[in-house]
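We treat protein structure as text, and this decision shapes the records that our systems exchange. This encoding replaces a full spatial description with a residue-level series of whole-number codes. Below, we set out a record of this kind in full and without editing:
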Amino acid sequence: MLKCTRCERKLKSGSKFCSACGTEVKPALRCVKCGAEYEKGDKFCCECGSVVGVESSLFGEFIDGRDGTRYRTVKFGSKIWMAENLNYGGKNGSLGKSCDNDYCRVYDWVSAKAACPEGWHLPSFREWYELLSSAGASGEKGQWWSAEEDSPDRSYSWHSSCNNGFFHNNSHKLCLLEVRCVRD
């Protein structure tokens, strides 16, 4: 339901101004992947994790030759990142586990290291840090693997909620986390 941002009255679809207070109605910003609304200044969709609010000329596309899945890509700094979570299940569907939505799979650390397509890799701790410095550290929720080990049974990971920003952690390698890949 569309509401006025100033007086919060219901608005008719297609309204250009609120009939109660006269505030201009601006169209909602929507994620091109899942259709969820996002706020100006957000860098990531809070629902599906896709990159939003970034100049469109920075986007590209990659088609995974293993299964034909199309992924949007985005350039941050000198690196090209997948702009959405990896969703590759392997030849027989046994690699990783499907998420609660249709946008990704989750992987243990060993599977995550093997999941990125040829010519792509699991990002290092430094690459994650550079991405967050370049793109900003708010707007997306999730937990992603980093390539480095912290100990024999733990590896570095990055965690975020829509409101609390990003932080790094060390997660047990058997945990199931999401994967973003970076072009080699």
